[in-house]
What we know:
Blueprint: H1 5-33, H2 37-41, H3 54-62, H4 65-96, H5 102-111, H6 121-135, H7 143-168, H8 171-179, H9 184-195, H10 197-212, H11 216-221, H12 229-232, H13 244-265
Amino acid sequence: MAAPPSFLWTRRVFLTLLTGFVLLPVYVMVSSSLKPLEDVTGTFRWLPTALTIRPYIDIWSTVPLARYFVNSLVVAGVATVCSVVIAVFAAYAVSRYDFRGKRVFSVTVLSTQMFPGILFLLPLFLIYVNIGNATGIALFGSRGGLILTYLTFSLPFSIWMLIGYFDSVPRDLDEAALVDGCGPLKALFRVVVPAAIPGIVAVAVYAFMTAWGEVLFASVMTNDTTRTLAVGLQGYSTQNDVYWNQIMAASLVVSVPVVAGFLLLQRYLVAGLTAGAVK
């Protein structure tokens, strides 16, 4: 049954308006990043009167953006890898085995998402400081401490998400692997994990995005050496002036890894690759 012309025109108008609403902020960022500071702070113009790439050059000297970029990449990357690895083992155990406290564990993992992050800020700060004073292990102001902090948020959700995904993977896959002589771990990595790639990729994207754009804990748990991009972008705002064109340029630059990663992994975000996997 063909759709009526009125529906087609309504859909086109709606999609056009939605696309404009989404792309308008991006256009403002791009155009502002190519303007001199005087043009950005003056009367707004939709079409720049003068184009310059100087903001993209100055962003690296106004603040140590390269160091912030490396810090964010290390923290987000390590937190993502740890979240995925731990979540795969924990979710597989909950999905495939029955043990005492299984339901309590699952509910506890999910309930941790109900609490706001600021509730844990002061306790984690005190724990890190006391551990540093007692053992000499510098968690406060270090990348390792920030990675552990991000794991407290990304790991519970990652486990809960993978539990549901592993439950959707047929148990016949495990049984077929065991019949062929595989042990539980070999069955996990050779059969279940390849079938659950979309869910694992979704968990990795979530964990990375959580760590990459987090501001609250990064602003408290870091110092000048370990500061991340989300906090370091505030350095373009000084007591004397705000370098709006550099802020826009830096925002676009730091968005490139996230956008590129999403474009490369988006084909894995479609669930349901297990059809016909059972021999």
